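Hi Q.,

Before the meeting this afternoon, I wanted you to have the S-adenosylmethionine prediction in hand. No need to reply - just skim if you have a minute. The sequence and ligand are here:
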Amino acid sequence: MNLWFTEVQTKNVMLSLATENLLHIEKTDYQELAVIEHKDLGRVLFLDSVIQTSTRDEFVYHEMISHVPMNTHPHPRRVLVVGGGDGGTVREIVKHPTVEKVVLAEIDERVVWAAREYLPEISAALGDPRVEIRIGDGNVLVRENENAFDLIIVDSTDPVGPGEVLFSRDFYGAVSRALKEDGLFVAQTESPFYNEDLIRRVQQDLSAIFPVTRLYLAAIPTYPGGLWSFSLGSKKHDPLDLDERDFRHCATRYYSPAVHLAAFALPPFVRQIIGV
Ligand code: SAM
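Predicted structure with the ligand bound:
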């Protein structure tokens, strides 16, 4: 099939994937959703022509957005995931035996449907009895809760469209109120090569609200620039304070205690972005 999907990363940089097989495409109420098969990357989920996840490299993103904060908290029992309708982040969270409840707040029910239909290895844990799926705006759900979660993870699309509100200082204030007194928060915050302003602003906003603010990185080949950032705000626990016995050992392919600590070692050009 001679069909290419192109993600426009900047005005001058694009990533195009040759489609082996177009499995599904539709316009949902929120975005254009497509799932393709690709020779090298396996199955790939696109939303509005932006790569969300590929079965080849999804483990890096999903392990790093979840195990870093999960291990930073000594007993994470109640976790909220905002976005993340593919289920990959939930799959990693339920590997932790401390977890009693995971609420997944995904705005677009068609993403959950498509993940169940076409990405079973990513969505497998959505049926776990500890998981509650709430279809709706995560911004609204966060504001309905107070002192309710040990951890809130924002696994969202880019800061445009329905995901935009999830990158605002006002939202981070609501997140802080929805967290328990020793809770913490993590969000994917895009590429240090292409999104310097966003990363700087999120770090500034988080440090106005949380006593502990950190930035960490992971290598994700299908995301713009290949190097991805995650911003963490914590009321008490510091991800850099962990020692070997604090880690709960789960089956992972990218994350490990050594990778956890190394991910916070920022190259000078990234330190410069956030002024540390
Ligand atoms: N790993 C991905 C990335 O960085 O490209 C994100 C994956 S996940 C599929 C993102 C999800 O966030 C999408 O399914 C989208 O529908 C959802 N989303 C965007 N804005 C949202 C909001 N305000 N509330 C809840 N879910 C939202």
